[in-house]
Structure formats: structure tokens, C-alpha cells
Design a protein that fits this description.
Helix 2 links the parallel strand 4 and strand 5. A 4-stranded parallel β-sheet has the order 1-4-5-6. The protein has one domain: Purple Acid Phosphatase, chain A, domain 2 (4-Layer Sandwich), CATH 3.60.21. It is an alpha/beta fold and 253 residues long. The longest helix has 15 residues. The chain is 28% helix and 23% strand. The protein is globular.
């Protein structure tokens, strides 16, 4: 039997609209090096986990999945563990905080060969530390934790697009997003997806941003001096789904 994939998420947001397009933030695709899709392969949409688990409940859940005490000589599991955060909104010390996340990541790395850490957006805005640094303090923390991939939420755009591009350059893993494109060039602003080796598997992360970003951020950021939109999120009927499927197919090749 091949390695299993376990996803564990942390969020600071308390509400969740399951019908909103923005719930689709990352797509994980597991496939083998010979590029064949194994029977029963799991295509897992990781939607934004808005319901906060209490630290006690979360600890109980994690302990039930992974034994916390292992001998130093114990062989590491080959299962793939994906840790993900979303809607952190500068909450560096909320729920378990970034320090707790770093500790838990180290614990997973001590017992598992392949541990990945990703972010599904809305990390750099929402608190004073983000506001006074234009989000730079958060991307610096993300670099310390060594995130493997990250996509943009609607609030990543709140500091203007040029500032977001600077944050992406500073973030070691960069941002990925398949549906944020320039109408001038027709090109995506960020790489659409990222493929990471995990043992004998490859994991493809496809970044997707909600078209609602036009309205939930600042509309003028996406317009030229004449008020014309010069960016697109694939907001027309079925366009978003076609874009995502196209990049899923490309990742599989």
C-alpha cells in the first residue's frame, strides 16, 4: 500500500460560507513518478477550515492520529503529512500561534519522512503588525517556518498589487495562483501551480483565488487610470473551473 496523505489545518476565522467560490483554495493531486494516476487516487480540495477547534480538542484529535512519544531509534513513517494554515490574518499568537505550529511541525518531522507546510491565503492582513509592515512581518515568519507553498487570499491584495509582488519576492516559497491574470499580457501574475517531491510521490499544489477579490479588496487596485479593469480572476461563467481543470491537467503531465 502506498503512502497515505493526511491534511491538518489551522484557521483563525470563525465563519464559513460553504457556497462561496473562495472556499476552494488549494488542490492536492497525488501521482507517481511514472506519471500514471493510480486507481482510487484522491483529488482533495482543501477548503478553508473556518471552524476553530479548541486547543484541547485539537490536541485530542492529533494525539488520536499520531502517537506523540516515539523512541529515538524508531523508523519514520512514509505517510505524507500536509500542514496548512488559512485566514491567519496576522494572528501570530492566536489558537496555537506560529510558535505552536513550528513545534508541531518539528514533532511531525521527527516521526514522518515527508512533512509539507502550506498556506491558503489571508495571512498578511488583519492586525497591527501587518498594517505597519505592509505584511512583511508575516512573510518573514512564514520564511522562518519554511512554508513549502502559499496562495493568495483576497486580503493579500489590500496593500496594493506592487506591494503584494514585493511580499511574493520576499516569501521564499513565493505565491502560486492559476486564475489571477493580466488582461494586458494574458499571462498569470504568479506561477499557477507547484509540484513538490515527497518520497516516491509528487504533490501538486494549484493556487486558486476567489473572483470576489475585485469587490472584497479595493476595486481601483485592479484598474488602470481610466477605470478599466486590467486583471481577471476568471470571473465569467464556468471560466474559473475551466482554468483550474486546465492546470490540474498540466500538473499531471
Amino acid at each position: 500500500m502506498g503512502a497515505a496523505i493526511t491534511c491538518i489545518g489551522i484557521s483563525n476565522s470563525e465563519t464559513h460560507n460553504i457556497n462561496a467560490v473562495r472556499t476552494i483554495t488549494f488542490l492536492f493531486i497525488e501521482f507517481t513518478y511514472n506519471k500514471t494516476i493510480p486507481k482510487g487516487v484522491v483529488l482533495l480540495y482543501v477548503i478553508e477550515l473556518k471552524k476553530i477547534l479548541s486547543l484541547t480538542a485539537a490536541a485530542a484529535l492529533l494525539i488520536s492520529i499520531f502517537p506523540m512519544t516515539v523512541s529515538a531509534a524508531a523508523k519514520k513513517e512514509d505517510d505524507i503529512v500536509i500542514l496548512y494554515t488559512n485566514d491567519v490574518h496576522c494572528g501570530i499568537d492566536k489558537t496555537i500561534g506560529y510558535d505552536g505550529l513550528a513545534l508541531y511541525k518539528r514533532e511531525m518531522e521527527a516521526t514522518h519522512e515527508n512533512v509539507l507546510l502550506v498556506d491558503a491565503g489571508d495571512a498578511i492582513q488583519g492586525g497591527t503588525i501587518g498594517m505597519v509592515t505592509d505584511g512583511a512581518a508575516i512573510t518573514e515568519l512564514m520564511n522562518v517556518l519554511e512554508y513549502d507553498a502559499a496562495t493568495v487570499g483576497n486580503h493579500e491584495f489590500d496593500y496594493t498589487i506592487p506591494t503584494l509582488m514585493t511580499r511574493s519576492e520576499e516569501l521564499n516559497c513565493g505565491y502560486i495562483c492559476c486564475n489571477f491574470k493580466s488582461l494586458v499580457t494574458g499571462e498569470t501574475i504568479f506561477d499557477p501551480y507547484k509540484i513538490i517531491d515527497a518520497g516516491d510521490k509528487k504533490i501538486a499544489f494549484v493556487g486558486v483565488a476567489t473572483p470576489e477579490t475585485f469587490h472584497s479588496s479595493t476595486p481601483s487596485f485592479f484598474q488602470n487610470e481610466n477605470g478599466e479593469y486590467i486583471y481577471t480572476f476568471g470571473e465569467h461563467e464556468n471560466e474559473l473551473y475551466d482554468i483550474v481543470q486546465e492546470n490540474v491537467d498540466q500538473a499531471r503531465q
